[in-house]
UniProtKB/TrEMBL annotation:
It comes from Micromonospora noduli. Residues 1-22 are annotated as: Disordered. The chain crosses the membrane at residues 60-82, 94-115, 121-142, 154-171, 177-194, 214-234, 240-260, 272-292, 312-330, 337-355, 361-378. The lineage of its organism: Bacteria, Bacillati, Actinomycetota, Actinomycetes, Micromonosporales. InterPro entries: Low_temperature_requirement_A (IPR010640). This is Low temperature requirement protein LtrA.
Length: 393
């Protein structure tokens, strides 16, 4: 008797998913994966907030970018793999849960990385995640003859680089930075090399949905971090923070609007797919850093930060500018035209000038509202032009 289709097997051959599969949506396992990853994102943003407030700017930036690379790269590789080979059998679920455990180990190691420069715990969590993915690539190589060469390249490349990460822990501290940069480049090259024999069958629309969902999760973390910081101040009797809370809320709403203003163009050919996928590192890291920067502004308002008002302003302005410029490169320039294309880099520049004034957070909120208003007006103009062309009467 054949097994009912509703019963999930312990194992099924890892066949490729169809790139044109209709109604492809994120699965509960993928959503759970994202939810657990936000713990690591929150740890990175919280430690960035405290380091900036303590005027440890260079230390804060370098360690934040390094930690966030480990978080983002692990998330991204699972996301693209799952888009191509999600079998949803028990073995696949177990391997994914191991990767989630690795993400939690990374999150546990974030404070030590910021305070002591000790990346050993993060490295162990990173390797756990990546080796679990190697197992998945080996399954893909066995179940998908058409893409076997690419799957093997992934498995070999990831394994070699993980050995490098473990060996880095034994190197003298003076070699640490050079080894770190070399290994990051090696990690980034693995997909570029592995996909050359023929791109694995990831689903374009599914990928854009997954990236959009992770953007929402990171924005949610910004809301939580800012809310907690302001609540602490209000509980201490500082009622002036209400206006700062309003400006912070406007900034978060505007970032959401600008990212999701129009349907996101799905990546296609390999070169643009790499640029699009890798470029989101800057978007995710910038959004999380906005939350840290807004928390720094609350600390400064409460006279708890050991930095100037201008530095606190730049803690918000720099990630906003990075976000705007990256969205402009990846989305706006390819999909829009006219004043909107010019406005994004102009607003990014004005955001960087805002900390020179007396109320930078409020100024940046106003700039983002103006940019959102322009995108609305320009979209209505485009709709009106299209209606005129299709219906001359």
């Amino acid at each position: 008797m054949s097994q009912p289709r509703s019963v999930r097997p312990f194992y099924r051959p890892m066949r490729p998913r169809r790139r044109d599969e209709p109604h492809r949506a994120a699965t509960p396992l993928e959503l759970f994966f994202d939810l657990c990853f936000v713990v690591a994102v929150s740890q990175a943003a919280t430690n960035l907030h405290h380091a900036v407030s303590e005027d440890q700017l260079v230390h804060a930036l370098t360690r934040y970018l390094t930690v966030f690379f480990a978080i983002w790269w692990s998330w991204m590789n699972f996301t693209w793999f799952a888009s191509a080979y999600d079998t949803d059998d028990d073995l696949y679920r177990i391997a994914t849960l191991v990767q989630i455990a690795g993400a939690l180990i990374i999150a546990a190691g974030v404070p030590r990385a910021f305070t002591d420069g000790d990346f050993s715990v993060i490295t162990y969590g990173y390797v756990v995640m990546r080796i679990a993915l190697v197992v998945q690539w080996c399954r893909a190589a066995a179940g998908d003859p058409a893409h076997r060469q690419a799957a093997r390249r992934y498995a070999i490349g990831v394994t070699v680089v993980q050995l490098g990460w473990l060996l880095r822990l034994a190197l003298p501290p003076s070699w640490g930075t050079a080894a770190l940069l070399l290994l990051i480049v090696a990690d980034l090259l693995v997909p570029a090399v592995a996909e050359r024999p023929g791109m694995t069958p990831w689903h374009p629309r599914h990928i854009t949905e997954r990236y959009g969902l992770f953007t929402l999760i990171v924005l949610g973390d910004v809301v939580l971090a800012t809310s907690v910081a302001i609540q602490t101040g209000v509980d201490a009797g500082d009622r002036q923070l209400w206006s700062l809370a309003a400006a912070a809320t406007v900034i978060v709403f505007a970032l959401w609007w600008l990212y999701f203003d129009r349907p996101i163009e799905a990546p296609g050919r390999l070169p643009y797919s790499l640029v699009w996928g890798y470029g989101h590192y800057l978007i995710f890291a910038a959004v999380a850093a906005v939350g840290a920067g807004l928390s720094v502004s609350v600390d400064h308002e409460r006279h708890l930060a050991h930095i100037s008002g201008r530095t606190a302003g730049y803690a918000v302005a720099v990630p906003i500018a990075v976000f705007l410029l990256t969205v402009w490169v990846l989305h706006v320039r390819r999909q829009q035209h006219g004043a909107v294309v010019v406005a994004f880099p102009v607003v990014a520049l004005l955001a960087l000038l805002a900390p020179l004034g007396p109320a930078p957070v409020y100024a940046m909120a106003a700039l983002l509202v103006a940019l959102v208003a322009l995108t609305i007006l320009w979209r209505r103009r485009d709709v009106g032009s299209s209606a005129t062309v299709t219906d001359p009467a």
